[in-house]
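Before we proceed, please read the two lines closing this message. Tell me what the token row says about the fold.
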Amino acid sequence: MGENIVDSWNIQKYHRGTYMEIEDEIAIEFALTVVIQGEEYATMICSPSALEELVIGFLASEALIRSYEDIQYIQLDSESGFAYVELFTDLPERSYGRTKRFIGSCCGKSREFYFDQDVKTAKTIMKKHVLSVQQVFTLMDTFQQHSEDFKRTGGVHQAALANRNELLYKAVDIGRHNALDKVYGYLLKNQISRREKQIVFSGRISSEVLVKVSKIGIGTLLSPSAPTDLALRLAEDLNITTVGFIRQNRLNVYTGQSYIQEEPPLIDIR
């Protein structure tokens, strides 16, 4: 990515009965205000990396765009912390507040969403693919081996877009949703097919994370951490395979069990 998201800070560290003065590495926190059609739409607290991908993914998550071609231009002013966006269509009226609880229905099943944008953009995954257990372990091992910023600071989240055998793009951010939006933005900007792709994620599988993955339109979510019950109910509803606690040759398949097999079949289950 090329951008620096880590700063240094002089601290006193206590270890085994001894104080020492050292220089520690701290994750940078950055405020980015998104201005759309001249209107300040939102301010995101994020890491100052992959900001264009973040803005694109955010616009898609907010149901303001469907594809990268819906954007007329994006101008980033990282010095002042503003992103200026012009769309080819006007901003829709926001009839619901961003914190209003909203109950929606889709594909004949009731779902409980927190924001009206989720109802507009959450997708039921119609086509899925099978991964072998070994492919899951390999992807997670690669993901964790490339966790330099987390190892340096302990203060960031990671999300990656992967095919069956390798990571295609990895995003880092202090915000877990921002990391996923960066992946979403990268996918849209580069017109990458969602077919046979998965999201590898560093954090807990919450309902918010699960909905974000469904918005991206990818049907498999891999994590070294735990899920919540609402996330799993949504995963079943949205037809997303969730695999958690991927650690040291162990894993739990919570939903979509038929899509994680000891050995991949010759023909995928569709």
